[in-house]
Design goal:
- Keywords: Signal.
- By secondary structure, the chain is α+β, with helices and mostly antiparallel strands.
- Strands 4-3-2-1-5-6-7 form a seven-stranded antiparallel sheet, with no helix packed on it.
- The radius of gyration is 22 Å and the shape is globular.
- It is built from eight helices and ten strands.
């Protein structure tokens, strides 16, 4: 009986230890709150040369004259060939990758939004809103918001520098957490994006802030060292880009 009691006590103690929260320093939290994803853009510029790479390996360059979307996601692109000047229409099912440039209007709007939230000054880089580099879109088969039938769309990859294990795609319909503003002053708090599309292995899912804890083990559970350092009860949704970057670095050794 005493042995059973001792084993139960040790088991409970082990569980309590495992469930204990990790306390991070202010410097660690500031680092974890830094936004590492690229800015999400919704409108390709029709004035700069875009590149479309089809599944058959052929490449087409031209100007995006028109795009068709469903729930914000691109499924059809009209391209005016830069050499022949002919208009061609491509469905997402045909396209493997697409490289476009953001419109100046959207970049200006992003800068204004950045300046309107004090939180951004400590967590985001303004250059992500003003960069003139190409935006990378990738063909992915997804269920929009995990509710619709699977369909192929061109989705913007927003973590190209650390996407070899977990790829994150911009959700054009994502909402943001609310903040507080008084008399037209910059907003305090809020501004955290609530959802993304995430791919790990063959699974692509819509990941919402409210479901982060439920999917934490799927995202990171196969790395024991990471889970010990960043257990789910010690981290926040705000840290997602840092966590994916850190998980990738630790998994790659």
């Amino acid at each position: 009986m005493k042995l059973k009691t001792l084993l139960l006590t040790l088991c409970l103690a082990g569980t309590a230890t495992f469930a204990q929260k990790v306390k991070y320093s202010k410097e660690d939290i500031k680092k974890m709150e830094t936004y590492l994803f690229n800015e999400g853009f919704n409108t390709p510029s029709p004035k700069k040369t875009s590149t479309i790479v089809l599944k058959d390996g052929t490449s087409h360059k031209g100007f995006c004259g028109k795009i068709e979307t469903k729930k914000g996601q691109i499924y059809e692109v009209s391209l005016k060939d830069s050499i022949t000047k002919k208009n061609e229409v491509f469905n997402a099912e045909q396209i493997n990758e697409m490289y476009v440039y953001p419109t100046n209007a959207e970049k200006i709007a992003k800068v204004g939004k950045y300046m309107g939230n004090i939180r951004n000054f400590g967590t985001k880089k303004l250059t992500k809103n003003t960069a003139g580099g190409r935006i990378h879109f990738v063909n992915q088969t997804v269920s929009l918001k995990n509710k619709k039938d699977d369909k192929e769309f061109l989705m913007q990859l927003i973590n190209p520098e650390f996407s070899d294990i977990i790829s994150v795609y911009h959700d054009p319909r994502a909402k943001e957490t609310g903040g507080f503003s008084m008399m037209g002053s910059p907003q305090l708090g809020g501004g955290v994006i609530k959802s993304y599309y995430v791919k790990k292995g063959d699974k692509v899912m819509w990941l919402h802030k409210d479901d982060f804890e439920d999917h934490y083990d799927f995202l990171f559970g196969d790395n024991t060292e990471f889970m010990k350092k960043y257990p789910k009860n010690s981290v926040e949704w705000d840290y997602l880009s840092f966590l994916i970057n850190e998980y990738t670095a630790m998994s790659n050794g």
